[in-house]
Design a protein that fits this description.
Shape of chain A: globular
CATH architecture of chain A: 3-Layer(aba) Sandwich
CATH class of chain A: Alpha Beta
CATH topology of chain B: Hypothetical Protein Ychn, Chain: A
Distance between the termini of chain A: 29 Å
Strand content of chain A: 15-25%
Structural class of chain B: alpha/beta
Number of domains of chain B: 1
Structural class of chain A: alpha/beta
CATH superfamily of chain B: DsrEFH-like
Helix content of chain A: 25-40%
Oligomer: heterodimer
Strand order of the largest sheet of chain A: 4-3-2-1-5
Number of helices of chain A: 4
Order of helices and strands of chain A: EHEHEHEHE
CATH class of chain B: Alpha Beta
Number of strands of chain A: 5
CATH architecture of chain B: 3-Layer(aba) Sandwich
Order of helices and strands of chain B: EHEHEHEHE
Chain lengths: 110, 115
Amino acid sequence: MKLGMLLTTSSENQNSEIVFKLANIALSAGHEVDLFFMDDGVYNVVAKNKISPKFSELLAKGASLSLCGHTAEERGIDKEDCLEGVQYAGQYELACMVQETDRFLMFGGK
Amino acid sequence: MKKVVIIVRALPFNTIRNSEALRCAVGLTLEEENKIHVIFIGDGVLTAVSLDCKEALRLDLGKHIETLKMMDVELIAEEEALNARNIKVSREEIITKPRKAINQAIAEADVVMAF
């Protein structure tokens, strides 16, 4: 099964931990995992961020991580600021991810 | 085909969240196999009202709404939320439906994205 997740909150939010744990479990069970970071969610994959090693771990386990380049640029985040292996993408890639994954979950703020 | 529902539930003032929801909806139409519905519920129905955006400290979301209509996206505002706030939808692109019908649309969706 292919699991897709969209994260739109920054790393202070509990969503980051939930997404990490869900993705980790899915990967351990042999599923494919695609993560997309948008809005404040892009902060999760900034290399200096304390939570980023967890997302590095997911990359090493074979997860695909992409972020919305537009919202990253709006926040002054360049490609060089992000974890190696994270793809700079756009809304088209998100649209394709929604279409291609068997289950798609969104984690956002209220 | 996947049925995707975008829920807009927050006030549209002093935030880019609603604009981002609509931008995301526009992006999702780029994959032809996605059938997109945008639903305004609760405080989000204020997004469906034409306002003097500058005076109301609100981003002008009109272009997103026009684009979504052009892409055959169904835009729905919750009747009960409009009535509770004593307002009416003032954009022809947006239709109103009762909460029961909206709940049904959400229940039938393959993907729900709430902003």
